[in-house]
Design a protein that fits this description.
Elements (H helix, E strand, L loop, with lengths): L14 H4 L3 H19 L3 H5 L5 H12 L3 H16 L4 H34 L1 H10 L5 H17 L4 H16 L7
Length: 182
């Protein structure tokens, strides 16, 4: 048995079809609460770059000052309530961009670490492979850093050259991404 369409509705939908289910409303509320919790983890400079309303931004700043678990939880509920009043897609997209940037930085760190470890472990063999893939690299500087790092590691000294090698590799990766390590 079907219901007759509503006369003033151009799409011909019934009132039951227009309603959103209670389960869907709960899912949306939980997603908004999760987004609000993610906002609490951001720094002040990141919050300023987001398209947040003033009352939401003020509530987030207040939540940062709260130390009591129960009070912080109530403040999170309040922030989510404020966010449900407006469209949160722009905020969610900006958060996704923040997370993508963080993943990119993490990948850059890992590439540099893998190359540093390979260069210290394999020496000139890994350096030769790196120079074939990136001929723009200063071979003499890298070779000196690798040898110093190997000496420090063998002598059990603090890894000053290893850190310098890592910084150099990270700078090279920021300029042009390093290839996958051997």
């Amino acid at each position: 048995m079907t219901k007759a369409p509503i006369d003033n509705d151009p799409g011909g939908l019934t009132t039951d079809e227009q309603l959103i289910s209670k389960s869907q409303l709960k899912r949306e509320a939980l997603a908004t609460k999760s987004l609000a919790a993610d906002l609490l983890e951001l720094s002040q400079s990141q919050l300023q770059r987001l398209p947040l309303e003033n009352d939401v931004l003020l509530a987030i700043q207040q939540a940062a000052k709260i130390r009591s678990h129960g009070a912080r939880k109530r403040q999170l509920q309040y922030i989510a309530k404020l966010m449900r009043r407006s469209d949160t897609t722009a905020i969610a997209e900006a958060m996704a961009a923040f997370h993508a940037d963080a993943r990119g930085l993490s990948a850059q760190q890992h590439r540099s670490e893998r190359w540093r470890d390979a260069l210290i472990l394999k020496g000139d063999g890994a350096l030769g492979a790196l120079l074939q893939l990136r001929p723009d690299i200063d071979a003499q500087t890298l070779r000196q850093l690798v040898r110093n790092a190997q000496r420090e590691q063998a002598a059990g000294k603090p890894p000053a050259s290893s850190r310098a090698l890592f910084r150099t590799l990270r700078e090279m990766d920021a300029w042009k991404p390093l290839p996958p390590s051997p």
